[in-house]
Amino acid sequence: MIVSTFITAVFTENIVFYYTYGICPFLGVSQKSKTAIGMGLTVILVITISSILSYIIYTYLLIPFELEYLQILLFILIIASLVQLMEVFMKRFVPALYKGLGIYLPLVTTNCAVLGTANAVVTKGFIFVETVFYSLFIGVGFLLALILMSGIRERLEKADVPKSFKGLPLALIAAGIMAMAFSGLSGLNFFG
User: Fold this and answer.
1) How much is the pLDDT for 148?
2) Which residues are CB-contacts of 177 (< 8 A; sequence separation ≥ 6)?
3) At what angle do helices 112-123 and 33-57 cross, to 10 degrees?
4) pTM, full prediction
5) Are 192 and 22 in contact (CB under 8 A)?
6) Is the separation of the CB atoms in 68 and 160 below 8 Å?
7) 19 three-state secondary structure
8) Out of 23, 38, 148, 178, which residue is the most buried by the measure of CB atoms under 10 Å away?
9) CA 76 – CA 60 distance, rounded (Å)
10) Rounded Cα distance, 1 and 131, in Å
11) ∠93-40-168 over CA atoms, to 5°?
């Protein structure tokens, strides 16, 4: 179960390349590898913890009291609170990363990858253990996408490309090619 969840969440259904969630931080923070890794690790923590908390609140509070319609509102409150805690922690203990992430750190609150994962774990009917691993591996997939993109963008920065393609246009082309490469993995049967 763990290996298949890992392959699915990281490769075949990558949060960036398959669901196209988290594109803003994916393109905004991927210019430098160090910043991309910092953002990726932050998102792993936020996705994992917020999905676990969302699962617990949904399962033990919303369902028993038939308050499922409050799901998105509560998930957003959980995510926003968690991001605030992460921001305070980074500002105090990792100021270089805090400064490097800039505006993108508070934007993790509105990162649809985080909300999408929290929503997915309850709509897919995962049990607690599946929720932990799925959300952790979704975060790892996001980190992988950021690392790959930052590596490509750092190399493209030194390349001789036409002026009209510099920056975002070439980044979008590279992201599209990576998405096609990742989608090629979806037809492979790893376990049977």
Assistant:
1) 97
2) none
3) 30
4) 0.91
5) no
6) no
7) coil
8) 38
9) 18
10) 12
11) 120
